[in-house]
Amino acid sequence: MTVEAREARQPWILLTPAVSAVLLLLFVPLAFIAVYSFWLRTATGADQVGFYLDNWREALGDAFYRDILLNTLKIAAITTVFCALMGYPAAYFIARSRGNKAILLLLLMLPFWISYIIRTMSWINILGVSGAVNSALMALGVITEPIQMLYNEATVILGLIHFLLPFMVLNVYVSLEGIDETLEDAACSLGATRWQTFLEVTLPLSLPGLAAGGLLCFVLAAGTYITPLVLGGPTDAMFANLVFEAIITQLNWPLGSALSLMLLAVLGALVLLYNRYLGMAQLMKGLG
Amino acid sequence: MSAVTLTDIVKRFGSFTAVHRMSLEIPEGSFVTLLGPSGCGKTTTLRMVAGLLDPTEGDISIKGRRVNDLPIHKRNLGLVFQNYALFPHKTVADNIAFGLKYRGVPRDEAAKRVADALELVQLPHVAERYPKQLSGGQQQRIALARAIVIEPDVLLLDEPLSALDANLREDMRVELKRIQHRIGVTTLFVTHDQSEALAMSDRIVVMSAGRVEQTGPPEEVYNTPASEFVARFLGASNIIDARAGGGSGDGIALDADGFGRVVVPLARAPQLSASGPARLVIRAEKLSVRAAGTTAGDGAIGVPARIEAVDYQGQAARYFLRLGDLQLQAINMIDEHPFNEGDEVSVHLRPRDCTALPGAPA
């Protein structure tokens, strides 16, 4: 075998395990779901094999699903905006701190070591009727009856921010780290104040990281079902809850498949849009 | 009036003192170089003038005004960095216009001044390009244009040529000096490269370990080093143990190892007392290697030596010589053929090329 042929083969040998895993565990099941979405669940509970458009007609035509999809996107958007506003200063602080960066980054990662569900449920102990905030306010005599703070849209957003903020901070941090600090010195020497330097130099150069963090937050927020399940009220279901409902509760796999493909299509379109304008490289940087 | 005055500047980082009580005057319009190895405090000094660092003690004045408490964006300085520091998301024209924008220069006047600056650095056609599309040398010209277009009181250059290739570096050296001369801006230049310092400066400030070793015009610093450090740092020097043995007419007589009695002119031994331990300093270029037995003329002292190694450099050669216990270096132009390793030769030293320093107290 020639050297060229050997060199050309090498990447494929190294990629084989990962590619097979993605193929077998992601694309094949996805194909199953696509096929399922055209089956039909009969009144007896058995699945009717065939090519039926009923599920798609229901998923796309029913205003109920459309409204919840729009609401899901709204919640994801609000969460993303809050994550950006809260995450950017934190990321800036870590990127510009001297010496103790490793500790700060470790602290940022710490929440990942605790189960996401436990972290979400911790809010019940804080905001619940007999939670920390109510107990403290009652002990101080500010209120006599506990306030109902949980189980609304605001707490869902709160839980999502709690979950997603580290992703935003990490992405912005990585892009800030990549900015040469002498650029800021240069801008100041040319007469720009610290704030003007930030607006003209630092912020524009960190936008790719902000966009990558935003995409991650948005996609993860839009696809979540645990946070609304734990922290939301009966009317705060997000789209993934409908999929959960259809598949786990009603055992209507064909409808659940159609719904989940619908969400996948919307979020996929968003990712494609992002890739078209900003490229995936930045996202990879943030994850690495 | 001095353009920049440093008075008793001290800079400490925790327990480490980077600059020890330094004073310096930079005359209006002059080109002053801070020269020294890395860690000598030269960049720290420049950053204090720029306002990027605050001095622990001492005063910094620019054009007679104390600027210690003046933030960097109000100091009106042009700063050029080793890594160019051009804004990657702005075009060349926007990079150069950056400082003008914050000085409230009207748009059309700014455009004209940007064009003039590009003309000055001989890159009139790159205005709409992005820094990434330019070579290193071109980027450094743009960085220079950006710094001078604001008509700064002082131009601060922090190793601006170090990132360039050797050939380009020499071209840029000439170019930089030409531009500085043309606009007459007071310039503080930081480098570790002695040839840059010698070629470009009106005055050189040689620094070592946070202290000024010597200040003077390039010729003076090169020819009469004030310390062993300066002698070793600027070019290759031979430093030979000697003993001063009293005055002798217009010079001081030294008894130097290997060469015997050498009478060094008084002007070249300003720090030397009439007797006691001393050091004889002779530049490698001034030590000439001749065929064995050649008579020494022109007041030179000739002694036999053997060539231990030859470093061939094209038009010149560097010889490593053995002279009894002494090991010496000589850099000579090559006349037809260089000498070979092992050749027995005659080494000639002219006393008027030597400098004498006090010897380390034994």
UniProtKB/TrEMBL annotation, chain A:
Gene3D superfamilies: MetI-like (1.10.3720.10). It is a multi-pass membrane protein. Residues 69-274 form the ABC transmembrane type-1 domain. Belongs to the binding-protein-dependent transport system permease family. CysTW subfamily. InterPro entries: MetI-like (IPR000515), MetI-like_sf (IPR035906). The chain crosses the membrane at residues 12-39, 75-95, 102-118, 124-143, 155-174, 210-231, 251-274. Keywords: Cell membrane, Membrane, Transmembrane, Transmembrane helix, Transport. Its main location: membrane. One of its GO terms (cellular component) is plasma membrane. This is ABC transporter permease. It comes from Thermohalobaculum xanthum. It is found in: Cell membrane. GO terms for biological process: transmembrane transport. Pfam families: BPD_transp_1. It comes from the Bacteria.
Automatic annotation (TrEMBL), chain B:
It comes from the Bacteria. Belongs to the ABC transporter superfamily. InterPro entries: AAA+_ATPase, ABC_SmlMolc_Importer, ABC_transporter-like_ATP-bd, ABC_transporter-like_CS, Mo/tungstate-bd_C_term_dom, P-loop_NTPase, Transp-assoc_OB_typ2. Residues 4-234 form the ABC transporter domain. The keyword ATP-binding applies. Keywords: ATP-binding, Nucleotide-binding, Transport. One of its GO terms (cellular component) is ATP-binding cassette (ABC) transporter complex. It holds the Pfam family TOBE_2. It comes from Thermohalobaculum xanthum. One of its GO terms (molecular function) is ATP hydrolysis activity. This is ABC transporter ATP-binding protein. SMART domains: AAA.
